What does this fold into?
Amino acid sequence: MEEGMKKLSVKNQSACMACLACEVACSEAFYKAYNPATACIHIVEKKGAVKTQVCVQCGKCAKACENGAISQNAKGVYVIDKKKCVNCGKCVEACPFGVIAKSDDKPNPSKCIACGICVKACPADVLEIKES
It folds into this structure.
């Protein structure tokens, strides 16, 4: 990781109880109502195990954006420039973890900005914001 990188990280997957508090907190913070489709974090079941899918700030969304609407800020977090975004959904398709949210009633998708709302909401201390 580069100097000054900030991202959401799963520090203790085995503690996750799949309570969805993180999904609820994320969705409600940015969309004012809980809808799993609008959360930028997802709890999924894979091969009988619970897995927390988070944005790792990999930049695949930025590469997929033909309008240059997604770029890294000073902390290394990829953010969507709402003025440049045309809501084409290419970033949503490009995300390997399925954590870019697109809602029909909003002009732009949303992605994890490493704000920490989900970290605070988690009762089992599964998540953390890493800064290096």
